[in-house]
Amino acid sequence: MLPTVSAILELPVLRAASPRLLGGAAGIDAPVRWVHVSEILDVGNLLSGGELVLTTGLELEKSPEESASFIRSLESAGAAGLIVELVGQRQRSRTALEKAARTATLPVVVVEHRVRFVQVTEIVHRMIVAEQLERVERARDVHEAFTVLSLESADTQRVVEQAATMIGASVVLEDLSHLVLAYAGQHVSTTELLGDWERRSRTTPFPAHTARSGPERWLQAAVGVRQQVWGRLVVPTPSAAFDADEDMAIMVLERAAQTLAINRLADRDQRELSHHAQAGLLNALRQPRGLSEAEALARAGSLGLKRSPYYVPVVFRTALQAWGSPVLPADPFAGQQDERELLERLAKALKSSAGTALAASIQSGSVGMILALPARQQEEATLQILAGAAAGPGVDANSTAQPNSTAQPHSAVPPAWIIGVGRMKATLLEAAAGIDEAAHVAESAATLREAGKPYYRATDVRLRGLLALLRKDPRVQQFVESELSAVLQAEAEGKGEYLELLGLYLGSGGNKAAMARSGYLSRPTLYARLAKLEELLAVDLDDAESRTSLHVALLAHLIRGQ
Q1: pTM greater than 0.85 (yes/no)
Q2: Do strands 19-23 and 180-184 pair parallel, antiparallel, or not at all (unpaired)?
Q3: What is the pLDDT of residues 331-366, one digit of tens each?
């Protein structure tokens, strides 16, 4: 802290001169930035503020009536105080000063004995320089402390605790929703510090720069980079140490805010670099072009994939349709953000499993993974963990109805990600080649109408999966039209019962007796309608090849209509 006028008057060199305060007592604790000795009355233009002016007052002795204007000029210049040496019989100057000092706002002091101004100047300037040196050293300490926290990528709590320790007051970090992300209390309970926080925070406006604001006069600093502010650091309960040196508190708070912003950017950049590295390696493994297994394992090991006896290709695909409801994001940037969030959730989930993995976006809406497992028996458990991570926080991967469940398909929540699993392989390169198979499974599974499973294998999609991939092929569409044109025409005319009847007949394997026993229709009525269906289709429904052809066409038609 800079020395004050009051502290300077307590110096022995001035105490020995019997100082007497004539006026301006309210400013006695004003900080003194410098000491200026002058014998001219027009000194205001030479000052820049905060100076303690020392004078013998000889010019005032010549023109005592100028005392008031002299003091006003010092006040206008922002001087910290005035000390006048009045030695001997100088009653005119003393009387004029006493009168002018009654209305002064800056301290006006007279000394009755000779004072060595040079000694006062040396002592005070030494105090000022020492204080400035101390501030420089403290600023260096603050800089070094937060630089270390930046280099160590310290977590948020450590940064906030460091700021609170240096300021000597409680510090709170909140986000833009006024939710507390971290805090460090100093001589105050958590209940008192954070009680009714959201209301108190919302009534405290966000200043453009580090400053106090709001009804509780919170000191606060923005956290973020330029236009990407994501929170603020707050000192809600100042302490005595804080009040004594608010400038230092501001410096600490701003440096802590910078560290938090840098660490967040560094953490994001580190994750992005890791994702890019894994994406590059995953693409190289899928198209090895002379890459050996040993080299592949070495490169994968450098990215955290442990050498294992088993490798499983997995693909996470954004659901194209989940029970008929499109869930693809319209915004491609939102899709990229979803993929990054999925990668982070998967990485976190793998820490609680026995497996390690390479994972990266392989195309828009798809994330590929090679899962390394130390034992075959751990495959199902690890896949369940990954399915839970893909489902998102608070969502059970098994909450969707299973194919054999009695729950209604539409009662389940459509998954955000469809998981396709390829066949387990013994080498890394073979597993990488299986990414395409897993992607095919995931894409096919996204077209299934029945309730979703946590993840799908090739045995779960089979013919439906193939037709799903070919559903937009004109040749498939032409095949469907040629096989089902008669019943589709009847459906368009309001006779949809024939399409439903065909589905039930093919689903029963062509067993008319079984259909009749199910109570769907009476036997004579059923046989009559099947005869009419045969007539519409112009085929023999008892022919196995005809039934197969119709069944494929019907599946393709149903998939196309999803």
Answers
A1: no
A2: unpaired
A3: 555 677 788 888 888 988 998 888 999 998 888 888
Closest CA to 427 of 314, 308, 315: 308
Structure tokens at 556: 């393709």
The DSSP-derived string for 488-502 is: HHHHHTT-THHHHHH
Residue 16: partners with Cβ closer than 8 Å, 6 or more residues away:
113
- Please name which of 390, 417, 451, 247 lies closest in space to residue 328, comparing C-alpha atoms: 417
- Exposure b/e, 148-175, CB count within 10 A at least 16 = b: ebbeeebebeebbbbbbebbbbbbbbbe
**DSSP characters over 117-182:** HHHHHHHHHHHHHHHHHHHHHHHHHHHHHHHHHHHTT--HHHHHHHHHHHHTS-EEEEETTS-EEE
Adjacency order of strands within the sheet including 211-213: 180-184, 171-175, 228-235, 218-225, 211-213
Helix axes 156-167, 246-286, angle to 10 degrees: 170
* Residue 287 DSSP class: S
Query: Which residues does residue 228 pair with via DSSP β-bridges, in sequence order?
Result: 225
Q: pLDDT, tens digit, for every residue of 27-43?
A: 898 889 889 998 888 88
Q: Phi and psi for 157 in degrees, rounded to 5?
A: -60, -40
Helix, strand, or coil (residue 473): coil
β partners of residue 211 = 220
**What letter represents residue 14's amino acid?**
L
Burial class (CB in 10 A: 0-12, 13-18, 19+), 348: exposed
Residue with tokens 């019989």: 89
DSSP state of 472: T
Backbone angles phi, psi at 523, to 5 degrees: -60, -50
Closest CA to 392 of 445, 323, 342: 342
What's the helix, strand, coil split of the chain in %, to 5?
50, 15, 30
Q: In which region does residue 479 sit, left (phi positive, over 0), alpha (psi from -120 to 50) or beta (all else)?
A: alpha
pLDDT < 50 stretches in the chain: 320-330, 400-412
Side-chain-side CA neighbours of residue 362 (13 Å): 25
Q: ∠472-473-477 over CA atoms, to 5°?
A: 85
| Alpha carbon distance 412, 427 (integer Å) | 37
Backbone angles phi, psi at 35, to 5 degrees: -115, 130
- Continuous segment of H or E residues that includes residue 367: strand 366-373
Sign of CA dihedral 236, 240, 241, 244: positive
Q: Is 84 helix (H, G, I), strand (E, B) or coil?
A: strand
Contact 221, 214 (CB under 8 A): no
| Cβ atoms of 53 and 70 closer than 8 Å | no
